[in-house]
Each structure stands twice: as structure tokens, then as C-alpha cells.
Amino acid sequence: MWRILFAFIVAFVLCAGLMPLVVRLCKKLKARQTILHYVDNHAGKSGTPTMGGIGFLLAIVAASLIFMRENSVLMVVALLVTVGYGVVGFLDDFIKIFFKQNKGLSPWQKILFQGLIAFVVSFFAYYHQTIAGAVYIPFTLHRVSFGWLSVPFFAVIFLAFTNAVNLTDGLDGLASSVTLVYMLFQAALLFIALYFFGDERGFRPEYINLIVFCAAVVGALVGFLCYNGFPAKIFMGDTGALALGGAVGSVAVVSGMALYSPIIGIMYVITCLSVMIQVAHFKRTKGKRIFLMAPIHHHFERKGIHENRIVAWYTAITAVIGSLCLMITIMVVS
User: Which of 101, 111, 271, 331 counts the most CB atoms within 10 A of its CB?
Assistant: First the structure.
């Protein structure tokens, strides 16, 4: 278990050490964030360096590979997915910044790239003997196989989380903080499954490596928050947001914890629902809005709540829901 702690420490040190270089490089290359006109209360953040996700992505990959051991197929898949989505985000950021096109990749291009990765990994999860298209029923850790239906289900999980993290990335430190806490509890759930069923179901080495990966993500995000917390010295950009979405989705799928994801990731769900409700209501009423602005964290901002307080509430709610999931699961399975 020392590997888990060391993965966290190394990822933190690497990310904290890399970020000053990433900030300087982004400034030199003029990789700066353009604030859209309708987010006028963030006008002062225009010109802040972006694409900072490169820093924590490198730290996650390095720490995971350093402390990876035998039977690490699931961790390697999670790493490849994280990097794959990070590359898609990098292309989006690159087009926005260096070709002066604010929209970057078109929505269809994003869906195509994201969907391709999602379906490849979903088929892997269906055919791999450890996963076999199965998921844990929340709070019981009883495994149920979805059969071939697991392929579209897993693909939806990937697409939902990559876009959910991206939508949550709207305030200084918001996506970083929520994802950090989410991955912490994801690792804790894996540890519980390992403790009660690891030897019986034969996935002990694979799950330990997945926990190492989660620890690397948490450590890297702690280091990144030193530069991304309010007032942010750098933004993660789509490079970071899509990479984190890939990390969240891949661990949920390959560990079988996909049904836990919308529970612990309740703030991701609320963020997405706020956008869907706003868009549907706007179209149905021909211009009327429910929220002052969507996603809902911008609505709270418009209400005069400081973004630090919003970030604190999002993080605290994620932590409380995660703690409840852990306590209920332990009580049920012990």
C-alpha cells in the first residue's frame, strides 16, 4: 500500500514542479484564454494562460507508470483513455488559440473523437474477463452483468463524464476540486471491494494498480490547485477537462463502479441537468430562462455568491455524498 502513498506524493511534486514551467511556456506561446462575451463577469480573467492540463496530465502518467506493477491491464487502459481524451482536448485548445477560432473543434468532431475512444474501451470492458460487462449494484457490491447492453451503457458513461467535467470547468479550481474529491472516494470504494472480495474474485493486483492511478490523479490535482485556485494563474483548458473526464469515466467502467458514478459525482449531474433544463426551457418558451445563466454555478455567481464559496460548496457536497456512499456500503457488505 506504500505504492499508493508514493504515487500521490510523486504526482503532487511533479505537477507542482512542472506548473511554473507550463505557465511560462503558455505565456510565451500566447496560449491565453479568451472569455466569451456573455460571461462578462469573468472579463478580468481574459488573457489568463490556458492548457494547464498538460502539467497534471504528465504528472499522472509519470507517477502511474513509476508505481505500476504486474497485472496492470486496467490501469494501462485508464491511462490510455485519459491521454486519448487529453489529446482531443489539446486539439480543441490548439485550434482555438493558434488559429484564432473561438469554438475550436466542432461539436460533431468532438463527439466523433470522444465516441470512438468510448466505444473501443466499452468493447474492451465487455470482452475482458475481469470486467465482462459487469457493474456493482450500489451499496451492495453485488456484481451484475449487463451483457452486450454494457457496450452502449459504458459508452454513455464516457461521453457523459467527459462533457460533465468540461461543463463543470467554469470557475477557478471548481473542476479540479470536485474531481479530486470524486477520485478520492472512487479509490476508497475500490479499496472496500478489494478488502471484502479481492481474493475471492481474483482482481486484487488489478485493483491495487487502479487505486495507484486514482492516487496519482488526486496528487496531481492537489499540485495543480496551487496554481488553479482563485485567482487562477492558469486554466486547465479542454486539454485538462477532457483528460479528467476520461480518467473519471475509465475508472468507473473498468472497475465496475459505473453505477456509483452519478451518485458520488452528483455535482457533475446537477451541472449537466442545469444546462439541459435551461436549453429545453429556452427553446420551448422562445427565449425565457430558468437560471440567470447556465451551467448553474454561473447562476449562483450572478446571484452575487463569490466563486470561492461556490467551489467550497460543490466540493463539500461531493465529499458528504461520497462519505455516505462509503458508510452505507461498508455497513451493507460487512
Answer: 271
Sign of the torsion formed by the C-alpha atoms of 151, 157, 159 and 160: positive
Q: Which of 276, 277, 263, 281 is nearest to 317 (CA)?
A: 263
What cell does 166 get?
468540461
Whether 167 contacts 280, CB under 8 Å = no
Give me 152's grid cell. 452502449
What residue spans define the domains of the chain? 2-333
The answer to whether 241 touches 166, Cβ cutoff 8 Å, is yes
- Three-state SS for 140? coil
301 CB contacts (<8 Å, ≥6 apart)?
41, 171, 293, 307, 310
As given in the structure block, the three cell numbers for residue 100 are 484564432
Q: Which of 192, 328, 213, 334 is nearest to 263 (CA)?
A: 328
Per residue in 133-153, pLDDT tens? 889 999 998 889 988 999 999
The answer to whether the beta carbons of residues 195 and 61 sit under 8 Å apart is: no
Which residue carries 494562460 as its cell? 49
Angle at which helix 174-201 crosses helix 307-333, to 10 degrees, equals 10
Instruction: Report yes or no: 79 and 46 within 8 Å, Cβ to Cβ.
Output: no
Question: CA 317, CA 322: separation in Å to the nearest integer?
Answer: 8
292-297 CB contacts, 8 Å cutoff, 24+ apart: 293/38, 293/39, 295/167, 295/168, 295/170, 295/271, 296/270, 296/271, 297/168, 297/170, 297/171, 297/174, 297/271
pLDDT tens by residue, 87-135: 999 999 988 887 766 667 888 888 899 999 999 999 999 998 888 888 9
- Please report, for residues 76, 127, 175, 219, 333, the alpha-carbon distance to residue 56 in angstroms, rounded to integers and kept in the order given: 17, 31, 13, 9, 35
Measured N-to-C along each axis, helices 150-168 and 266-284 cross at an angle, to the nearest 10 degrees, of: 80
pTM exceeds 0.85, yes or no:
yes
The count of C-alpha atoms lying within 13 angstroms of the C-alpha of 141, restricted to the half-sphere facing its C-beta, is 23
